[in-house]
Amino acid sequence: MAQNNHSSDPIDAVLTWVDGNDPKHAEKRAKAMNGSKNHHSHLPSGNHKTRFLNNGELYYSIASLRKFAPWIRTIYVVTDNQVPKFLTPEIQNIQNIKIVDHQEIFRTYEWALPTFSSMSIETALWRIEGLSTKFLYLNDDFILTAPVQIEDFFARDKVILRGRWKRMAEYSPLRIKLNHIFSRFVKKFLGITRSLNLLTQIRSAKLANFADRYFYTPHVPHPIRTKTVSDFYKAHPKTFENNIQHKFRSTDQHTIQYLANHIEIKKGNALLKPPDDVLMINGESDFRFMISKKIKRIKKGDVKFLCIQGFESIDDELQDELHTLLNDYFSDVYVNA
Predict the structure, then answer these.
(1) Rounded distance between C-alpha atoms, residue 287 and residue 281, angstroms
(2) Domains assigned to the chain
(3) Tens digits of residue pLDDT in 160-178
(4) CA separation (Å) from 305 to 177, 276, 309?
């Protein structure tokens, strides 16, 4: 383990979080949707309540970072005038957690607020004051399930990217429209939320001048070099402004994690790995037996990176089993508070 080589180069973690159960937030979201001018490009899932539900995953996400990645210096939680109830001032102090409001990362761009698009918010994460030169970006539904080292994400000046190459697909206006129709159909009749994540990754790859193929990355912690993103947007300020203008997720947007990935690949600053240690549980689309099988994999220690989406859609018995498993994992993390 070569952590000493990085002692002068701290690494932070950044998580985005929203409590959509908050009536004030829901009211603000509804008002913004009614006043939005770009309905034609909105993703059908962009304003669905499941995107904003708070099922307590953030608790496990932060606990997993502190238990399995103790080398993380500061954990930044980016929120919209909200603070998770469990993050008391004492917990924040003990665990070195800092709450960052959207107002901070959108300073001088306040015209873009309020925003409810995760992609707009991600675009401005590199503007967090005091952020380390290298950081991990995670969604709040992402949980580490085994110890990880710095070298799982950064090899000196290179980033470690998990994924696989895919052929670049073309998304014509007609294809996007058909995707919207299909997304509404599967949500109404099957309860499955589709986000067009592939389109987002393709758009990001194209910005980095990839034309034929892109490096598809599943839901994992994203290692990002702050300078990579800041340099790009400083050279392309209009691209930055175009991306943050969207109040809700749009088919016209890209995301910084996939943009940064492809910039690093293009410059030869990335080491590519298959996503063998990654596991996704999706309560909306996974059958019960599939979720049960995945829980067994977690218990066996086969995975390091777990993403749980649609937690509220998992049946009660399996929810309880997951909660019990995760509570056992992290029962010792917050005991000092």
Answers:
(1) 10
(2) 3-330 (3.90.550)
(3) 999 999 998 766 565 555 5
(4) 33, 10, 13
